[in-house]
C-alpha cells in the first residue's frame, strides 16, 4: 500500500476512534472522494462509441461463488451485459487463487473484449492483469487489492459497512457487553473490515470480544452454524454472550440458524451484506438477526459492468470507486415478505444508481430490445 493511502486510512481510523459524536465518526473523506469519482464518470456523448457497437465478449473471473450474494451479483453482471448486447463467461475459481490466475490467463487467450474480476489477491493476479492490459483488454475489479494504472477497482466501502453495523450493535448494547466475531482472513474486504473492528474496541472499551472464528468453504453457512452451536455450549447462560458480529452474510445466516435452534433469543446478530434469502431470515418473527449493513449485490455487478464498457469505449474512469452502503434494521421492515427489489420503500436511498452510466448507454440498451 502506498504511503499516502496508509496515511488516509490512519487518519480515518483515528477520527473514528477519537470522536464522541457518532455522526462525526463517519468516514467523510471516503464519501467526499466517492462523489468526486462519480463526477469523473459523467459523459456527455449520446452517440454510441464505435468500440461498443459490436456484441462484446466479457469474462467474469471469480475467486469463489458462494451463497445468494454471489448469485445476485452474477445476475447483475449478466443482465447489464445482455442489456448492452454482449455475452458473459463466468469463471468460478473455487477459492483457489492459483486456479483464479489460470482462469484469468484463459480469458486473455480467448481474446475477450473486457475482464471483470471478483475478489482475489494482487499477488496472484497482478501478472495476469498486466498481461491483459498489454493486450488492450480493459479490467475492472471488485473487492480486490489491485492497484495498477488503468485498472478501476470498486468496493462497497468496507470501512463504512463495518462501522454502520458495529455502531448499531454498540447502541443496542448501550456500550457494554460480550460479543463474538465471525471473520476470516485472506480477502481484501475482510482485512478492511478488521481495521474497523480494531477501531470499534477503542471507541467502545466496555464491549469485550470473547471469541473470533470463521472459515470460507463450499458450505460456509452450515459450517458456521456448527461452530456457533459449539460456542453456545461455552456460554449457556443469558448474559454470557450478548451479540454476534458477522462480517459476511454467510456467517450471519449460520449464526442466526444456530441461535434459532437453540432458542437463544437473548443474543442478537449484526451482519454485513444482504440478499433475498437474508431478508427472509431477518423478517422471521423473533429472528435474532437485528441489523445488517449492505449494498445491492446486483447493483454492484451492474456498476462494475458499466465501468468496463466505459473503458472499452475509451472514456475516462476512476482508479477507485466506492458504492454507498445502507443500514437495514429488522424493525424497519414490514411483516409481509419484502425482496431486494422492493427494499427502497423501507430503506431511504436504497435502489438503483446511475453511477458509471453514460448517456449513450441508454441508446445502446434500446437498440437491443
Q: Would you write up a description of this structure?
A:
Its main location: other. The protein is globular. The strands form two sheets. Strands 2-1-3-4-5-11 form a six-stranded parallel β-sheet, sandwiched between helices. The protein has a six-stranded mixed β-sheet with strand order 7-6-8-9-10-12, sandwiched between helices. It is built from twelve helices and twelve strands. With 369 residues, the chain is α/β, with parallel strands linked by helices. It folds into two domains: 27-155 and 297-323 and 354-367, Rossmann fold; 158-294, Response regulator (Rossmann fold). Helix 3 (67-83) packs parallel to helix 11 and helix 6 (158-172) runs parallel beside helix 7.
Describe the structure using short key phrases.
369 residues; alpha/beta; Rossmann fold; 2 domains; six-stranded parallel beta sheet; six-stranded mixed beta sheet; 12 helices; 12 strands; Peripla_BP_I; Sugar ABC transporter substrate-binding protein; signal; SBP_2_dom
How many β strands by DSSP? 12
Count of distinct structural domains: 2
Q: Give the averaged pLDDT, no decimals.
A: 89
Strand content: 15-25%
Distance between the termini: 45 Å
Question: Runs with pLDDT <50, length 5+?
Answer: 1-40
Helix content: 40-55%
CATH class call of the largest domain:
Alpha Beta
What is the second-level CATH architecture of the largest domain?
Answer: 3-Layer(aba) Sandwich
Q: Give the strand order, joined by hyphens, for the main sheet.
A: 2-1-3-4-5-11
Specify the biggest β-sheet: 6 strands, parallel
Question: At the third CATH level, what is the topology name of the largest domain?
Answer: Rossmann fold
User: What structural category arises from helix and sheet content?
Assistant: alpha/beta
Rg, rounded, reads 21 Å
Give the count of helical stretches: 12
Find the CATH superfamily of the largest domain.
Answer: Response regulator
- What is the H/E order? HHEHEHEHEEHEHEHEHEHEHEEH
Pfam families: Peripla_BP_4 (PF13407)
InterPro entries: Bact_Solute-Bind_Prot2, Peripla_BP_I, SBP_2_dom
Main location: other
Keywords: Signal
